[in-house]
Amino acid sequence: MELRLLSDQGQESVGVNASDLIFSRAYNAALIHQIVVAYQANARSGNRAQKDRQQVKHTTRKPWRQKGTGRARAGMSSSPLWRGGGRIFPSSPEENFSQKVNKKMFRAGICTILSQLVRESRLLVIEDIKIEAPKTKLLLTKFRAMGLQSVLMITHVIDENLYLASRNIPYVAVIEPRYADPLSLIYFKKVLITKTAVMQIEELLS
Fold first, then answer.
1. What's the CATH architecture for 2-38+101-205?
2. Among candidates 187, 147, 130, which has minimal Cα distance to 6?
3. Could you tell me the Gene Ontology terms of the biological process aspect for this record (predicted)?
4. What is the DSSP letter of 72?
5. Burial 100-130, CB ≥16 within 10 A → b, else e
6. Residues 106, 37: contact at Cβ < 8 Å?
7. 20 to 30 A from 178, CA-CA: which of 52, 83, 165, 186?
């Protein structure tokens, strides 16, 4: 299949040939949902802690006698049923939220996302993108010419001028093909890939 090739001025030229297995895969909503949820879960850290009935500050004195009061039996004020008591299953910092995703499934999910981006005309290819100096204004001028605002740039080599010029722009990110993740591909409105990066993506996902 052919991908849209843009110039620095936003003009389309002859398309770029790409693999159908990567950029023309059938849509699979369940697979995309699974790898996105797993990616977010694996980035989550166990940074919360709660106390059980042994850790809360309390007295071991029996609140009232066992019989004759008309109230329910109570042995200790640290009971999880009581206000200020311990939790039955408390959260701990050692809690593990990670989810396992097979490599084959992850690659298939990335291919599905890329294919859907092509169908929605959100994936664009450019010969190369370079700026003469690390100036945000220069990069914004290029984006305006191409009609881009929220964009994920995937380039084969991250140029220092490009990185420095882009890091202060909201809704713009510059990454290499090996760091392309499902969340970023979905989040940005447009994905701009250099021609060489397309070949690298095909090597990584084939």
1. 3-Layer(aba) Sandwich (3.40)
2. 147
3. translation
4. P
5. ebeeeebbbbbbbbbbbbbeeebbbbbeebe
6. no
7. 165
Angle between helix axes 103-119 and 29-42 (nearest 10 degrees) is 120
- Give the H or E element holding residue 160: helix 160-166
pLDDT of 15 reads: 73
Distance (Å, whole) CA 28 – CA 115: 10
pLDDT at 34: 95
- Cβ-contact 178, 204 below 8 angstroms: yes
What's the Rg (C-alpha) of the chain?
27
Q: Which amino acid is at 196?
A: T
The pLDDT value given to residue 154? 94
**Global pTM value:** 0.81
| 87: three-class secondary structure by DSSP | coil
Q: What is the mean pLDDT of each run of 10 residues along the chain (206 residues)?
A: 76 78 92 95 88 91 94 93 92 89 94 94 88 90 88 91 91 93 94 92 89
- Residues with Cβ within 8 Å of 198's Cβ and at least 6 positions away in sequence, in order, are 3, 16, 18, 125
* Residue extent(s) of CATH 3.40.1370.10 domains in the chain: 2-38+101-205
